[in-house]
Amino acid sequence: MRTSIATVSISGTLTEKLNAAARAGFDGVEIFENDLLASPLTPEQIKDRAADLGLAIYLYQPMRDIEGLPADAFAQSLRRAEHKFRVMRRLGAETVLVCSSVSPQAVDDDALAADQLRQLADLASEYEIRVAYEALAWGRHVNTYDHAWRIVESVDHPSLGVCLDSFHILARGSDSKGIESIPGEKIFFLQLADAPLMTMDVLQWSRHYRCFPGQGEFDLAAFVQSTVRAGYQGPLSLEVFNDIFRQADSGRTAADAMRSLVALQEAAGITDPPAPVEPTAVAFVELVTPDTERVSTMLGALGFTRAGKHTSKPVDLWEQGGARILVNTAPATGRGSLSLAAVGLESPDPAAASKRAESMEAPVLPRRSSGRDILIDAVAAPDGTELFFCATDRPNLPNWLNDFQQVPHCSGGGGCVVGVDHVALTQPWHQYDEAILFYRSVIGLQPHDSVDVRDPYGLRRSRAVSTVDGGVRIALSIAPAPTDSGTASQHIALATDDIISASRRLRDTGRLLPVPDNYYDDLAARFEFGPGELETYRELGILYDRDESGQFRHCYTSTIGNVFFELVQRDEGYRGFGEQSAHIRLTAQLAR
Amino acid sequence: MRTSIATVSISGTLTEKLNAAARAGFDGVEIFENDLLASPLTPEQIKDRAADLGLAIYLYQPMRDIEGLPADAFAQSLRRAEHKFRVMRRLGAETVLVCSSVSPQAVDDDALAADQLRQLADLASEYEIRVAYEALAWGRHVNTYDHAWRIVESVDHPSLGVCLDSFHILARGSDSKGIESIPGEKIFFLQLADAPLMTMDVLQWSRHYRCFPGQGEFDLAAFVQSTVRAGYQGPLSLEVFNDIFRQADSGRTAADAMRSLVALQEAAGITDPPAPVEPTAVAFVELVTPDTERVSTMLGALGFTRAGKHTSKPVDLWEQGGARILVNTAPATGRGSLSLAAVGLESPDPAAASKRAESMEAPVLPRRSSGRDILIDAVAAPDGTELFFCATDRPNLPNWLNDFQQVPHCSGGGGCVVGVDHVALTQPWHQYDEAILFYRSVIGLQPHDSVDVRDPYGLRRSRAVSTVDGGVRIALSIAPAPTDSGTASQHIALATDDIISASRRLRDTGRLLPVPDNYYDDLAARFEFGPGELETYRELGILYDRDESGQFRHCYTSTIGNVFFELVQRDEGYRGFGEQSAHIRLTAQLAR
Fold first, then answer.
1. What whole-number percentage of chain B has pLDDT above 70?
2. pTM higher than 0.90
């Protein structure tokens, strides 16, 4: 279906908004009146600009407080409407959004509303304009879509139809099934917005917390299906009032928006893109650093062995159990201190994973092909982390490990790391919902619940995405405000089957993050432990959590550059990340 | 009364929080358990630290899910409680907060709750600890203060009393009058928080949107009066969960918190500080700049005349009608480009105004006394703007104008500015509520309603404070996110009695901010105008608003450094600032 976005959904001037929508590949836009009013471009110039960019102007919006009014107020409204119809002709917009009245003057009289909407439609038809009437969820008398439709049906005017807005309908808990009984040609427009489920004033909820489909909790696929079944053939248009999107980069937001529509059409069965290919494990994590000394010492303290070096690039391969860490010292990476740059995901079918990413409008990276390097499919996550789709040691598929030649080393240095439990990536301020949608739609991971984590300097939001079996887990978090530095710390959580030995080794090398005694006094109050158990945790800086499925024990290293490590011993079934004690870790890190 | 603040109300580590509370002059603190758990200090060290800072530890909090539980769960809770009582002894805290149960296991049985609270109180008394039982607004069965009190009364134990929290009581709309029937000695603790009135889930409202007394909409004065009438003699303690305070500078927040308690005690009739002295007009606005050329040209274009120079400092006095602008080129100001540094407020009694400021813990500035300069009382607003209390040309009072000597000039250059309509100050990100409280309590101005203003890069919040008659108006606004530059533009709105001539003069000198044509097409749709009127506004970039009391017409200059000017013709009775078209101006300024 054709795609559209309301200019109110993205930041900037009207010109910037049009550019961003075009670059993201939208077919058209809704022009929000305030964006037009503030633009130095005339309506004719806006029309030309949109045409040059290949954008249709599907809708002009909104027109308010028209129907159900006393005669003099209605006369005023009609006068105002005629002015707007003239602007729309100049703009080349053929459909106008009319919201149900919220005016205290409005009366509860469907016949009056119908009569006035008929007059409006008569006037509109003189300008060859169609009126799309929408029930606002907080409309004074008309606030459900079926009520709006009853009035439109009774008017039976070719220039009058309804506009359906998923927020207004789903926020009230209305059943979207009823849409199917509206003739498709009378659905003049379809506006889409998702939202987190919140108990709050519906107007405030709508104005500040809408988000793109798949970023909230509404069932938009069913909503779109009902509309399509009704016979609607117009564009799918995003109308999202969101305080974050209003201030985020317009290009990013528009790309995120487009991805949401692509994923929605798949979910609604309208399109059939290549299926997601769920990764099975973390093949490697790549760190970049201008100097290897500190990270080598740390990896040694963690029990890793330098097992290989890249045949053509300054990249070392460190191994332990099933965990592989690449240390890249290429100056081209241009980062000042140790950073996490890439994650290799073990994929059952790397080529298909890459096709999936491409179909979801993800930035597929140029395949690496310098020298005799193996080609690896990769995609950039919203925060810039590169995700490689790997087939390690599998017959008939390119093996990235072949790029590395073994270096002499004594294998099995007594480490007890068995793999990567999870990777934790702090997201840029504005890119939290975008990241969740990315990992879900592009990579095929499932989002967990969002949790608030107390940081000494504000609340962080944290949300994990993972495969169902936990083979791949990525914990995303967002700081309470933009950081001055721009880069926040990332971490690699290594799975171990012997947290006691692992943390003792860390402590003995002076790289263990100390945990305050008070924490252990609290643990003693919360849980009962076997003899000596708590004392061991206290001695070794091990944090502890337990749920009905099992235990979660973990400890942290000190931080190098922007990266630190966690050691995790997770009982099968425990799904969390020890969030309850995250504030202990965050505070302890400040003291370093 | 003694003052206290919960550590959860301010940002940082526990050490930083204690330091901030002490510096702001609090008598004591509530220690929030998570702050203690994350601290590397032992309870004994925290006790000593607080003592060294002169801070009492009035409360340890919170203890959850104790009462109304099945026997095994209660046994667990009691075990947990005993651990905490031991920590409290080490900490020197004698009162613990126990919140009413939210556990799904909790049963609706007052007799059971009473029995278990009695057992808890028995245990507490062994540790010489008092239990303050509080009804959470979302408590599972006990969620009103009178219910909590009925249970406490029935237990009748010397170690068991109630904790009253203004949020939990007022958010539910309970009448605080009933507090007066509780014996004062059974009110073990009083927690104070204000909040904006919001329609939303009460737990989310409480956890994220509480604010200091006077910054929200609850009647905290009546609440405190009732508690004092009941005979409560403990401290007034602030417990404010607020997402902004969590990330703001702890020192600022603590000072803001203390001011709120000082103002609250005055409002409740507990103290009787010097009365506020309402200013009557803006005596001057002071700009600082490294070079005077551009600002001199602009002031000339606005019709100002350079009428005087300071006798000992590099400060010029520009005059027109009743408006005076000082241009300060002293290098000590250290600002890179033109900025608004100070506002002179005409005060009926400058010395009393200064005393008021001092009593409200405002930073009174050292009186200027270099050379033969007149002494002027002044205070620093939260954003650093200096506010001078002036008595211009009044007998028996120091006249700041005497510091200036006339320079030759032709007076009355045909300008039509008659005074200062308002001054608009963009506030640093975290200091919006703080600023409102400051102008209200220290300066005696009345806050208007807060409005959201659309900026192309996010929503701004804007709120004016003014005298009742509009003699002094200050418009405060806050950007949607911290700005990179740190400094946002300020502006001076000059009152004129002839907006047409004033804006024509600006246009002729090339200093008028152009307004898009589309805006005037919209005006034509919204209002009816006399012949030629709208065309004049269009020609001269005049923005227009009208309410039931009259018209508001205004235009803007281009921006110099961080400052621009507005020309305003305001009909008497119009109370606003043309907020409806603020987004037009904000967008037009981007194009410059």
1. 96
2. yes
